[in-house]
Amino acid sequence: MAATGQVGFALPAAVGSALPALASVWLLRRLSGGGPLLDDLGGLAKFFLVAVLAATTLGAGVGVAALAANGMLGEAGPLSVWLVWWLGDAMGVLVVAPPLLLLSGLRGGAGVGASWYRVAEALLLATGVALTLALLSTEALPPWLREAARPLMFLMVLWSALRFGQAGAAVTVLSIAAALVVVTAAGQGPFARGSFQASFAMLHAALFALSTTGLALGTVVAGQRRAAAAERLAREQAERALARLRATQDGLVRAEKMASLGRLVAGITHEVATPIGSALAAATRLGEETGHMATALATGTLRRDQTKDYLDATAQAARILQANMERAARLVESFKHVAVDRARQDRRRVELRGHVEEVVISLRPQIRKTPHLVLVEGAFRLEVDIFPDAVAQLVSNLVGNALRHAFPDGRSGTITVTVDSRPDGWVELRVSDDGQGIPPALRDRVFEPFFTTQRDDGGSGLGLYMAYTQVAGRLGGTLALERTGPDGTTFLACFPPESPDRPANETATADREPQPA
């Protein structure tokens, strides 16, 4: 009968121990979705509810029922037996399961780095834990010293959680629990009481506080580390993307500059062809008249009036030749200055209005295609030490923008470029038109790169952006939309009379998000 009773108890007890464990594993896997179980406070709460509370409650209930069915409860009541059974199982799960789960994750590559100072800190922590346990379990020490060592347990767990995360806290709690179980079972240590049940009840309460505190704090620390790592990764990815964007932007800006220079060359070629053609026609006529004169002289038929006509034609041809050659020379000289200024990127001293006039002259081929008038006004003899190519790019882009956008209805208009100095010594360069103005919805976007309303007509959206980068990046100043409305638009560039020695990268100035005035 005794053997039958033991079998009748052992089988249900085994089922009661195995079934809750299997059920909790299945349920926890479902709840975690296949991810790390103790990855956050939500997963930790699920672990407590399912594995620590529910599974052990079921297992203790089945075990106590098996004891009662076989008459093995003795004098203790079922509730007392169940409580002791449940508390032992719960503490076993709470103390033993987390290190196993977390250390298996570390083998997969998770966790903290094993640098030498981390190893040294781990050894120092282990020494602190051993010293704390020695103080708690040495009966020869004064009682007040052993009692004072109790807070050290929490300090060791907090230290391990803050510095080594969940795994460090779990291993520390397991080490403390293993030592204190042995000490308490021997009737020693700070948790020893008059009875076995009372001693382990006190121990379990302390271990519960240690384990929950360590795991919760370690989970928070691990979450912060993951968030910091994710933020660092996102920042690195954003920086790489920004670097690629800037490289692309630089390439497009360079391409736009080359296209602008190409248009300048084509326009100047066409512009120079006009005076050269006139000079060629005058030279051709002069050659013809000279031929007639030579024939008359050779045949002896030269008359006085014929000589007078030849001299008049020669004088007229000379005037035409001189005027057109001078015009061509001025065009070539202006083109040379503007082209060299755009190709060179060094700082030099220039007379600002004269330089702006040369830039406008180089834009004549573009201006002649429109009915508009471009004027240059302002102070003479305004000497500045700047990057001439930056001013050339600025004026070209602002005037070109006005030619393309200010007068869409085909009516003629006037664009005025004005240079002046301020009382504080800075220089003002205004480009104004009497066109239709900029619509309110577009005013905050005029300096955005690649923003254009004429993309289908070949607009790149880089004109005003490049003008802004020249002023902010090369000239050390500002460019703003000073006014716009039905009576026209004015852009105002302000910069010091002496440009910075080290101009900022052109595309880097876009980080400052230019805002129109």
UniProtKB/TrEMBL annotation:
Membrane topology, record value: Multi-pass membrane protein
Coiled-coil annotated spans: 228-255
Identification of the protein by name: histidine kinase
Catalytic reaction equation(s): ATP + protein L-histidine = ADP + protein N-phospho-L-histidine
EC nos: 2.7.13.3
Keyword tags: Cell membrane, Coiled coil, Membrane, Phosphoprotein, Transmembrane, Transmembrane helix
A GO cellular component entry from the record: plasma membrane
Segments passing through the bilayer: 47-69, 81-102, 122-141, 153-186, 198-222
Stretches with biased composition (Basic and acidic residues): 499-517
SMART domains the record matches: HATPase_c (SM00387)
Molecular function GO terms recorded: phosphorelay sensor kinase activity
Disordered: region residues: 494-517
Catalytic class of the enzyme: transferase
Segments forming domain Histidine kinase: 267-499
Subcellular location: Cell membrane
Gene3D superfamilies, per the entry: 1.10.287.130, Histidine kinase-like ATPase, C-terminal domain (3.30.565.10)
Family matches, as InterPro entries: HATPase_C_sf (IPR036890), HATPase_dom (IPR003594), His_kinase_dom (IPR005467), HisK_dim/P_dom (IPR003661), MASE1 (IPR007895), Sig_transdc_His_kin-like_C (IPR004358)
Main location: membrane
